[in-house]
Design brief:
The complex is a heterodimer of chains A (157) and B (174).
Chain A: H1 3-14, H2 23-31, E1 33-38, E2 43-45, E3 53-59, E4 61-69, E5 71-79, E6 83-84, E7 98-101, E8 105-111, H3 112-121, H4 123-156
Antiparallel strand pairs in A: 1-8, 2-7, 3-6, 3-8, 4-5, 4-7
Helix pairs in contact in A: 1-2, 3-4
Chain B: H1 2-34, H2 43-50, E1 53-58, E2 63-65, E3 73-79, E4 81-87, E5 93-100, E6 104-105, E7 119-122, E8 126-132, H3 133-142, H4 144-173
Antiparallel strand pairs in B: 1-8, 2-7, 3-6, 3-8, 4-5, 4-7
Classes of the chains: A alpha+beta (157), B alpha+beta (174).
Chain lengths: 157, 174
């Protein structure tokens, strides 16, 4: 195997989101991945546009924003070691929010459309990925509900 | 003779029990197949899932689970509605979400610390299927396709609820 490829696979395997993944799965993941870099203020993806990918943030900070109210409202922040983007998983395969880099950000890009096919062919990969993603989803769901309850409580006062 | 008679009776009893169990199983299978969360699951997987399922009923106002208590499984709501309630500071319960018929309820059984994060309260008379988490975890380990199917469906619901919560948050911040 060529050296840079081997190094990249190691990087993929070392990302906190993928820790403990088996070698064969890491290889499949690395197969549809590459490095990407975003400058401060860069838009990573835009609300409403087709979602065909996701990112694992290696270093940096990303803000999710909504523009449903006309102006942009911050929704959440994604940091080092976290996963960004799941709209590629389910219909309508369109971004629900806009993601903007708040700092210089290094990430690993994954081509979701291919990965979805890999998961359909290899259910052990699909199971593993969905399990890990649902842990992140649940954490964010709980955080969003907490914020919502706090906002309502303040609103009721 | 007496011994034979009692043995025979036992075997009749056993048969009756088996028939009753089978009927209950057939009933559960049909319920599983009819639930939107499991639509298009393979008949084999429905049969496997039925081994972890039991029917439950809750009266209006009844607590289904309580924050901080061990989370040992999840529910598919068949009829009724359930409020998810949390508390902020010392202000008492605030509802964050309402789970309706056709939807799953409860994720905390999936991940450590395996404790409910919220209270769940039936706000209408509610019927549900309860799935034992421990059995499910074993079933998913043995059958990765089942695990993939279940987690894919659960992820989809989580994303939908996350998006709904964020949309409500945007509303609340207006």
């Amino acid at each position: 195997m060529d050296e840079s490829r081997e190094k990249f696979e190691k990087e993929v395997a070392a990302h906190p989101f993928l820790l403990g993944m088996n070698e064969q799965h890491v290889r499949l993941l690395a197969d549809c991945a590459m490095h990407s870099h975003f400058h401060t203020h860069d838009i990573i993806f835009r609300e409403g546009e087709p979602a065909n990918r996701f990112y694992l943030i290696v270093r940096g900070k990303v803000r999710l924003e909504s523009s449903t109210l006309g102006e942009s409202v911050p929704i959440d922040e994604i940091h080092d070691g976290d996963l960004l983007g799941w709209s590629w998983l389910f219909p309508p395969y369109a971004w629900h929010f806009t993601a903007r880099a708040l700092e210089e950000t290094d990430a690993i890009f994954f081509y979701g459309t291919i990965l979805r096919e890999y998961c359909e062919r290899d259910h052990s990969l699909g199971f593993e990925l969905f399990k890990r993603m649902s842990a992140v989803m649940l954490r964010r769901l709980q955080a969003a509900r907490q914020k919502l309850m706090t906002a309502r409580q303040i609103g009721n006062r | 003779m007496e011994v034979n008679f009692s043995q025979e009776w036992e075997s009749v009893e056993r048969e009756l029990l088996q028939t009753a169990n089978m009927e209950a199983t057939v009933q559960t299978n049909a319920e599983l197949a009819a639930h939107p969360f499991l639509s298009e699951m393979s008949p084999h997987h429905l049969e496997v899932l039925a081994t972890a399922a039991s029917p439950k009923q809750f009266a209006k106002g009844e607590i289904i689970f309580r924050a901080g208590k061990p989370a040992n499984g999840f529910y598919l709501i068949e009829k009724g509605a359930v409020a998810i309630e949390g508390s902020v500071f010392e202000h008492g319960a605030i509802s964050t979400d309402c789970i309706h018929a056709g939807e799953p309820l409860g994720w905390s059984w999936l991940f450590p610390p395996y404790l409910w994060h919220y209270d769940a309260r039936a706000v209408e008379p509610t019927t549900a299927l309860f799935f034992d988490g421990e059995i499910l975890r074993e079933l998913c380990k043995d059958d990765l396709t089942l695990g993939h199917e279940l987690f894919r469906r659960m992820s989809q619901v989580m994303v939908r609820r996350l998006q709904a919560s964020r949309a409500r948050l945007i509303e609340a911040l207006k």
